[in-house]
Amino acid sequence: xxxxxxxxxxxxxxxxxxxxxxxxxxxxxxxxxxxxxxxxxxxxxxxxxxxxxxxxxxxxxxxxxxxxxxxxxxxxxxxxxxxxxxxxxxxxxxxxxxxxxxxxxxxxxxxxxxxxxxxxxxxxxxxxxxxxxxxxxxxxxxxxxxxxxxxxxxxxxxxxxxxxxxxxxxxxxxxxxxxxxxxxxxxxxxxxxxxxxxxxxxxxxxxxxxxxxxxxxxxxxxxxxxxxxxxxxxxxxxxxxxxxxxxxxxxxxxxxxxxxxxxxxxxxxxxxxxxxxxxxxxxxxxxxxxxxxxxxxxxxxxxxxxxxxxxxxxxxxxxxxxxxxxxxxxxxxxxxxxxxxxxxxxxxxxxxxxxxxxxxxxxxxxxxxxxxxxxxxxxxxxxxxxxxxxxxxxxxxxxxxxxxxxxxxxxxxxxxxxxxxxxxxxxxxxxxxxxxxxxxxxxxxxxxxxxxxx
Length: 454
Known about the structure:
By secondary structure, this protein is mostly helical. The chain has 17 helices and no strands.
């Protein structure tokens, strides 16, 4: 059957939709595609053009959500087997085994790296070493994650040098600047460094194609799925550590020191690599979990923000602008943005607006209102007491979030009204990612200088 690019593009979108929403493997998708193509060919022979034939053929296959449930019933055991069994034999199995070996080797390397400073007297958990680990914790983990993706994506030799540059720069900034002990700029730099370097990992993930909108959205999906796996591993690790302490206490030994000095730092560092490997290896499993979590927590957070605003207005209470409060508000707004980003990445861009899209708009509008209230409180505090590193950082971050959430609200409203495609909202979010990274580097590298390292 001769086909043009338009039909192949439609079939490609159909395959992506099916794989994103179904717990099926490539073989199942291939079988369905063969059936679809045979239907299209028959319909074309009957006189329909390619576009008409494709639409009719998809309709004959049945509703994809019903098809999803049929596959879930027929292959219910497969989901459990995917969690523990390797893929089939051949080249794919060999590659999967190599990926696993490299990922676990890098996980061990990260775990070892976080303990190496003890050879120089910087013991994990000691007061004298806290500042060193605060500044460098990110550099013990993310470089190994970047190496994993650079190896997995076969990054060209020149790309390895470009990839190393931000990590080297971060190491110099964090260790050569004369931070005041326990100062605000030291903490701000340490908190923003993971954001600044996460883009470097994204460049490795995208194999140098970061400018492509699709690759940025893929990295958003990876980030959400990685977080889910990391939290699951952390919960399991917490149970393991609890039983470790319990078992040794039963024979009169105190294991808490060993758990705190070894299991926690080494496990936390290695888990970052293991979670990344799981996302790559078990992607079809978590892709069915993440959208469900997003749909569950979006209305809950929208209700929380509505309740907060109503209570604030009803009681006349103002936001207490202290460092911990500012951090908490920024984390809350970042979480709301994360819910929005991940729901966008998991949504079929061709689907019409629905109830969940309206719920998302409510969540974004609530977050906008909370952000505006936080900005008002920060600005009032600056007018009354002057500038400080924490207030300026919070002011900048909330302004950046305000612009992002405002643009998202406008585009979401236009999409619901049928005046803009959903792709416009997607591109707005992926195009805005570098703004956060640039601001993070400003806080990491310039704030200490501007505020005298205090």
